[in-house]
Amino acid sequence: MTTTEPRNAFQAGGPSRRTVLAVGATGVSALALAACSKAAPPSTNSPAASSTAQSGSGAQPSSAASSGSGSGAKVLAKLSDIQVGAATAAKGADGRDILISRTGQTTVAAFSAICPHQGCTVANTFMCPCHGSTFDPKTGAHISGPAPTGLATVPVSVQGDNVVAG
């Protein structure tokens, strides 16, 4: 009589160890790439945004441009929803997270909500919850913490009761 030795799952037509390891490595690589892509700070094409992000210097608040909102610019927030001295989180015209700070009765300043330290989203208190960097709500300048620069400016204007892109 001949006896057959028991076969394990890999020998019985299942995937080989090499296949299992390759699939696992591919999954881990995909997760690592996804995590890295979130940490990248947004690129801006605005010269003002670039200079503020690099120097941490102050941004010029935007003031009321007109009483109507017929320019076709994307409405980002309602001015009346933001108290003077406060800020709100919004999505910019490009869909990225921004902070809009009301600096006066008819003036606002807007900044990227992405911390230049490691890409975390900065709260509307202008403090990064990840490592504690703080930023000036009027200028976006770096105040404290590990962030190497201030927040990048985002061009906005006030039209009537609307804060609009541009």
Q: Can you tell me about this structure?
A:
By secondary structure, the chain is of the alpha+beta class. It has two domains: 8-40; 49-165, Rieske Iron-sulfur Protein (3-layer Sandwich). 19% of the residues lie in helices and 23% in strands. It is built from two helices and nine strands. The relative contact order is 0.20. The model is unreliable at 28-69 (pLDDT under 50).
Write the layout of secondary structure elements.
Layout (H helix, E strand, L loop, with lengths): L16 H23 L7 H9 L6 E5 L8 E4 L8 E5 L5 E6 L4 E6 L21 E2 L6 E3 L11 E4 L2 E4 L1
Parallel strand pairs: 1-8
Antiparallel strand pairs: 1-5, 2-9, 3-4, 4-5, 6-7, 8-9
Task: For the structure shown, list the relevant keywords.
166 residues, alpha+beta, Rieske Iron-sulfur Protein, 7-stranded mixed sheet, two-stranded antiparallel ribbon, 2 helices, 19% helix, 23% strand
Largest sheet: 7 strands, mixed
**CATH topology description of the largest domain:** Rieske Iron-sulfur Protein
Strand content: 15-25%
Would you identify the CATH architecture of the largest domain? 3-layer Sandwich
Mean of residue pLDDT values = 75
- How many domains would you count in the coordinates? 2
Measure the end-to-end span: 87 Å
Helix content: 10-25%
Shape: globular
Our Rg estimate from Cα atoms comes to 25 Å
What's the total number of strands? Answer: 9
Can you count the helices? 2
Strand order of the largest sheet: 2-9-8-1-5-4-3
**Unreliable spans:** 28-69
Query: Which CATH class of the largest domain applies here?
Result: Mainly Beta
Secondary-structure-derived class:
alpha+beta
